[in-house]
Write a structure and sequence with these properties.
It contains 9 helices and 9 strands. By secondary structure, it is an alpha+beta fold.
Length: 303
């Protein structure tokens, strides 16, 4: 039996070629007719399968459009119109290029531009969207009035490096200076040993056991603090047993200390930022932070 399914596209039918305000100003002119939506007739098995396939592949599309493309579902009629325009053009190379341009524009606007703006925030320079877009299109049109491609890349790379350094100095220079001052003063305290690497330590409990190698698995209890006393991590936060790891799997300051400590030792480590997390931001640890650790080497796991 032949089945006829009427497809009422309310999204398309609701779209108008003129706004309400424009229509109210031109009441004397004849209003355009509402586009007629052609009824869909499914007369063969292939018709039905094809139509059902089209409906099926939209499953999850609207959440995807909202989450990944920021589409406001109020304007779904415009989405449908864009889809239909591309579909009607088929494999026309001009349309392919046009659509690709729109897709890349969306990526630049929604992903690359915000990332660059963030990178240059708090630096001596900033990103101006209109000029970024102009540079983008001029490069594609081979316009070398202001820069060649190579010169632009070299200039941008150097400015990015200098501005990043200036930004880090502005935001984290005081933190670095405070750490260096702390370590300089700490090195003069009784019982503190300062090594050429910059690592400092104080023996709290002297162990008599074996000294581990870098590739041994050690058992350690520890507590980590910032120089202001803030505790940012401790082994007891991860359970009631010592933590197990290899000395070559942790920050350089720990690697150096653990491969000098006999089992049974408890040391207090004072680690400069270069032997800790450097210019990285790690949770409560700001870039260029000097760190303090109380480390107890409980044992070495037998291989």
């Amino acid at each position: 039996m032949k089945r006829v399914i009427i497809l009422a596209l309310a999204l398309v039918a609701g779209a108008s070629l003129y706004s309400v305000s424009a229509a109210s100003k031109k009441k004397d002119k004849k209003q355009p007719a509402t586009p007629v939506v052609e009824a869909v007739k499914l007369t063969t098995g292939s018709d039905s399968v094809s139509y059902a396939a089209g409906m099926s592949i939209t499953n999850g599309l609207i959440p995807f459009l909202i989450q990944q493309h920021g589409v406001d579902t109020t304007y779904m009629a415009d989405f449908v119109r864009g889809f239909q325009e591309v579909e009607k053009m088929g494999t026309d190379p001009k349309m392919k290029a046009y659509v690709a341009g729109m897709e890349i524009a969306n990526q630049v606007r929604d992903r690359m531009l915000p990332s660059l703006v963030k990178d240059f925030t708090d630096s001596p320079d900033s990103i101006i969207a209109s000029l970024l877009y102009r540079g983008f299109t001029d490069a594609l049109k081979k316009d070398t009035t202001l820069f060649t491609q190579q010169a632009a890349e070299a200039f941008f790379s150097e400015k990015q490096r200098l501005d990043q350094a200036a930004k880090e100095e502005k935001l984290y220079g005081p933190n670095r200076d405070a750490g260096e001052k702390f370590l300089a003063e700490n090195a003069q305290k009784e019982g503190v040993v300062a090594l050429r690497s910059g690592l400092q330590y104080k023996v709290l409990v002297k162990g008599e056991g074996v000294i581990p190698q870098k590739t041994d698995i050690v058992q350690v209890n520890y507590e980590g603090r910032l120089i202001d006393g803030t505790v940012f991590d401790a082994s007891n936060r991860h359970g009631d047993k010592p933590m197990e790891f290899r000395p070559d799997q942790v920050i350089a300051g720990w690697t150096e200390a653990l491969t000098m400590m006999p089992v049974g030792s408890k040391w207090q480590l004072y680690i400069p930022y270069k032997l800790a997390y450097g210019n990285r931001n790690s949770g409560e640890i700001k870039p260029y932070s000097a760190l303090i650790f109380d480390v107890e080497l409980v044992g070495i796991v037998e291989k």
